[in-house]
Amino acid sequence: MEWKPIISLCKINPKSVVGSKKAELMQQGDFPFFTSGSKIYYVNSYMIDGENIYINDGGVAGFRYYCGCAAYADHVISIKPTNVISKFMYYCLDAKTKFINNTFFRGTGIKNITRKDFFEMKVPVPPLPVQEEIVRILDKFTELEEELEEELELRKLQYEWYREQSLVFSRDGNNDVLPYIHKLLDEHCPNGVEWKPLWSVTAWDKKFNAVQQEQQKIVTSFKHVSAKELKSLACGGNVKLLSTGNFDGFTSRDVAGDNVNEGEVIAIPSGGNANVKYYKGCFVDSGNLLATVLTGVNCRYLYYVLDSKQDVIENYYRGSGIKHPSMFEILQIMIPIPPLPVQEVIVSALDNFSAMVTNISSGLPAEITARRKQYEYYRDKLLPFEPMN
């Protein structure tokens, strides 16, 4: 099989002078604007047309293929493959993402691609019929994965809609959609659902400034560790590592030692962005404000209510640099408190739907992961990167 340097198989498109922040402010339109991260904006003007590949030039290696009119940021390299099928070139680069990242991205701090060395990297160039067949096979796998991702996104939207409907308690709200909930409401609270401020149904593990003492009669106590220490504890086990962000892991009691807490809590970050979490059991926390519920409230029910109010809570995170929550305002958020039997029915319904959408060990996310592994397996089998003697 013939091998050729990338530079001999493509034309390098003009460098963009538009940064990602500027693109965010551009007039919205139908043309994708590719950044060096995962974000894609849609703007009203384009730079290039046709089949092109978009390459991160800073941070970590990443490749996108797109056919059509598009624009890209100043930290993206765009190439138009020549003398090779564009999609085949994309699959070749995608297969070598880890190698390219480790070999050609250099520097202290944010790394940048060494363009000269990258473009001199050789890739296999089989006959066109072979390229076409490889593209056909890999396209099938990517199409299946995209269909599953679209289905997952629809299920998430469906869950959010279902959650909102489950938490509407007005008489003209969701009678037709969720009649069994309104039947329970008619039985248990014919005069309507009581609404209470958040401070009256929760106890927190910190005394907040500007919050009156009568609104924080109970202050609980939990142990916390630094974010760095939290990640260092990850080893597998049944003790949850509760972070403020997307880090998700477990540890054991032996490793966590005296840092283990136990209970049923709702967590929001003490700094950063609003990210409401729930956990019941043994856990180690880092950087969260932790709430427990008072009598008459199902903790998971309250979590679902607060989860539906993420945007409201986010508005109460303020400050330059790292934002911090204004707990005085957050604690004033009004919460509908139906009788416990109604809360339990709502929790059961939302738990079932949430598990179908978000549980990584079952349903669509697991299927997407399996399809991704299947695609990578066939991609690596179809695209050998060891030159034959």
- At CATH level 3, the topology of the largest domain is Adenine-n6-DNA-methyltransferase TaqI, Chain A, domain 2
Task: State the CATH architecture of the largest domain.
Answer: Alpha-Beta Complex
Overall pLDDT, averaged?
88
CATH superfamily of the largest domain: DNA methylase specificity domains
First CA to last CA: what distance? Answer: 9 Å
Instruction: Give the helix proportion (percent range).
Output: 25-40%
Number of helices: 13
- Shape field: elongated
Number of domains: 3
Low-confidence stretches: 171-175
Largest sheet data:
6 strands, mixed
Task: Report what the structure shows.
The chain is of the alpha+beta class and 389 residues long. It has three domains: 2-125, DNA methylase specificity domains (Adenine-n6-DNA-methyltransferase TaqI, Chain A, domain 2, Alpha-Beta Complex); 128-187 and 339-384; 194-337, Alpha-Beta Complex (Adenine-n6-DNA-methyltransferase TaqI, Chain A, domain 2), CATH 3.90.220.20. Helix content is 38%, strand content 24%. The strands form seven sheets. Strands 13-18-16-17-14-15 form a six-stranded mixed β-sheet. Strands 2-8-5-6 form a four-stranded antiparallel β-sheet, with helices on one face. A three-stranded mixed β-sheet has the order 4-3-7. Strand 3 (28-34) and strand 4 form a beta hairpin. It starts with a strand and ends in a 7-residue tail after the last helix. Mean pLDDT is 88; it is low at 171-175.
